[in-house]
Backbone:
C-alpha cells in the first residue's frame, strides 16, 4: 500500500484527518491521534507495521514555535517503511513541556525512543511507564537539543564548557 493510500485507509477506518506530504513521502497526523493511528497500523492485517524503527524529535526553533516528531514504522512481512509526522507546539500555553500519548504500549522499542526524545528535546509522553532521562544525568537542567538551549558553565562543580 502506498503512503497516500495508507492515509486514506486510516481516515476510512478510524476517521482521523490525515495529510499526505508528497515531498517527504510521509503522513501528517494530529498529535492526539498518534496512539490510535499506530495501533491501527500495527493491528491491521493489511498493514501490520510490526516495528517502530525510529522516533526522531526535531526542534524547529523558537521563531517557528514547533517541534516535529517523526515515527519511522516498518512492516517486516510487507517490506514497507512508513514515516508519520506529528507537529507539536514547543511549549504548552502554561509554559510546560508539550505532551503526546505514548506508543510504548504498542511497540516495546518506543520505551527508549520516547525517553531519548524526552531527555534531549523535552517532549512529555503521556502514559509512558518510566519517562526518565536516558542520556543525561537525572538532575540535568534543560534539554540539550532544543535550539534555545544554553549549556551550563558548570555541573556539580565540574567545568562543562571547554
Residues:
Amino acid at each position: 500500500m502506498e503512503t497516500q493510500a495508507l492515509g486514506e485507509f486510516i481516515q476510512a477506518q478510524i476517521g482521523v484527518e490525515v495529510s499526505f506530504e508528497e515531498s517527504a513521502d510521509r503522513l501528517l497526523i494530529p498529535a492526539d491521534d498518534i496512539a490510535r493511528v499506530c495501533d491501527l497500523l500495527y493491528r491491521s492485517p493489511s498493514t501490520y507495521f510490526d516495528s517502530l524503527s525510529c522516533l526522531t524529535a526535531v526542534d524547529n526553533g523558537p521563531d517557528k514555535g514547533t517541534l516535529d516528531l517523526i515515527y519511522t514504522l516498518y512492516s517486516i512481512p510487507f517490506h514497507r517503511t512508513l514515516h508519520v509526522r506529528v507537529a507539536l507546539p514547543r511549549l504548552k500555553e502554561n509554559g510546560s513541556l508539550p505532551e503526546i500519548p505514548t506508543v510504548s504500549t504498542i511497540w516495546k522499542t518506543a520505551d527508549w525512543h520516547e525517553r531519548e526524545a524526552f531527555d534531549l528535546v523535552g517532549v512529555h509522553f503521556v502514559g509512558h511507564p518510566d519517562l526518565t532521562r536516558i542520556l543525561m544525568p537525572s538532575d540535568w537542567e534543560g534539554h540539550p537539543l532544543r535550539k534555545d538551549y544554553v549549556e551550563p558553565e558548570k555541573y556539580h562543580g565540574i567545568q562543562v564548557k571547554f
In short: The chain has a mean pLDDT of 95.
